[in-house]
Design a protein that fits this description.
The complex is a heterodimer of chains A (142) and B (260). Chain A is mainly alpha-helical and 142 residues long. Chain A is built from seven helices and no strands. In chain B, helix 2 crosses helix 3. Chain B starts with 9 loop residues before the first helix and ends with a helix. The chains are: A mainly alpha (142), B alpha+beta (260).
């Protein structure tokens, strides 16, 4: 979400502190979605500080049958950096979707998006990631 | 897209199909996945699922900071599924059940209350209240005398023994009377009096089914039915009931005369 482990940790700790503070005031977080919603906004606020990526148009390629092989060659950090560089709300959409923790309904609530919008963000993200994969880890014969 | 389209866009839903099967996936998503798997684009959907699976695997491999992991292990900040009582209370199902229980409880309490005050002959008395409610003056033989004088009439004309009017009502002027048999009660004497259009009923007391005995009572016992109230007293195996359109308190002044 932030592309920076330190910032992410700071956001996370602040969220947990806020939850603890609410609990002591007898107003605990109502559900687990609260944590993700709160952490997301903190991450967004932190990521707006410092150097910002210039908005640009990424290439898109249809998903390749070889994509799983290409992805296996990646380091997890590379994926994290790629997602963190995506513009909002695509960044949050991809992060939540690939965490594989939430139902569609929960994601729509967290991101305040419609199903069609989320679907578009994810499918565009796939094609952009495929284009990036093809550029960074090309499969032999391609 | 039509403004009135309510069918979900299955194509769009399939684009965000869950990476792993989860319990509780809603119906629209299940249909979208089924269509994607069985449709012309099934191969593409298979590639999408493989792509998503590979990315999710890589995401799971992202190392979690040790301190954060420790916080997760030790802290329990989400309250355990406690639902606010207001939400529970206003749930339609709970409301329906509560209403049904209240109605059943009310009926049960009413029946218990009714039967707590029951006495031998209470059912007949209640039945005669309905007779009182439906009786018109034309049904009775006109007779203007003191109610107390009718005891002799009942005995002489109808062979009804001990059909005596209690002293507190003996001086009341009558408008008419009749003697009739009913499906439920036989040998009923009915008298209309001028005073507040009250009616008197005299009828045989209920006998104990085991030994045929009758237990008299000299206090007044009450029955009520649809706005009519009767006060019953039993002597010599005959019940006397005074009926008024109103409540127990409307009869009270007449019943207290005896005490004076």
């Amino acid at each position: 979400m932030t592309g920076d482990a330190g910032k992410a940790q700071e956001a996370f700790q602040n969220t947990v502190r806020e939850a603890a503070s609410r609990s002591t005031q007898d107003e605990p977080p109502p559900d687990r979605l609260w944590f993700f919603r709160d952490a997301r906004w903190r991450c967004l606020a932190l990521s707006e500080q410092g150097i910002q990526a210039e908005p640009g148009t990424l290439e898109e390629t249809e998903i390749s049958p070889m994509a799983p092989v290409q992805i296996e060659r990646l380091a997890s950090d590379q994926l994290a950096v790629w997602i963190s560089a995506a513009p909002e709300p695509q960044r949050s959409a991809l992060a939540l979707f690939y965490l594989d923790e939430f139902s569609l309904r929960e994601m729509l609530v967290l991101l305040a998006l419609k199903a069609g919008e989320l679907s578009e963000l994810i499918s565009v993200g796939r094609r952009q990631f495929q284009a990036w994969l093809d550029a960074t880890t090309p499969v032999e014969g391609q | 897209m039509s403004l009135f389209q309510i069918r979900p866009d299955y194509g769009a839903l399939a684009q965000c199909a869950p990476i792993t099967e989860k319990p509780g996936t809603d119906r629209a998503m299940r249909v979208a996945i089924l269509r994607a798997r069985q449709g012309k684009q099934s191969a593409l959907f298979g590639q999408q699922q493989a792509f998503d699976g590979a990315v999710a695997k890589l995401v799971r491999a992202i190392p979690v900071d040790a301190q954060v992991a420790e916080w997760f292990a030790n802290e329990s900040l989400i309250p355990p599924g406690r639902r606010p009582w207001k939400k529970i209370l206003f749930n339609p199902a709970v409301l329906s059940i509560a209403l049904a229980i209240a109605v059943i409880g009310g009926v049960f309490a009413y029946r218990v209350h009714e039967h707590l005050r029951d006495f031998p002959g209470a059912d007949e008395a209640r039945h005669l209240l309905s007779v009182a409610a439906s009786t018109r003056s034309v049904l009775l033989d006109p007779l203007q005398t003191d109610a107390g004088a009718l005891s002799d009439l009942f005995f002489m004309k109808h062979r009804l023994e001990h059909y005596d009017i209690p002293p507190e009502f003996a001086d009341f002027r009558t408008l008419g009377s009749r003697v009739f048999d009913d499906d439920e009660v036989h040998g009923v004497a009915q008298i209309w009096v001028v005073e507040k259009r009250m009616q008197f009923f005299l009828f045989p007391a209920e006998k104990n089914p085991k030994d045929g005995s009758v237990t008299d009572f000299s206090d007044w016992r009450f029955v009520e039915l649809e706005g009519w109230t009767g006060a019953v007293q039993q002597r010599d195996g005959i019940c006397f009931m005074v009926v008024i359109r109103g409540r127990e308190k409307d009869l009270a002044p007449y019943l207290e005369k005896k005490k004076e």
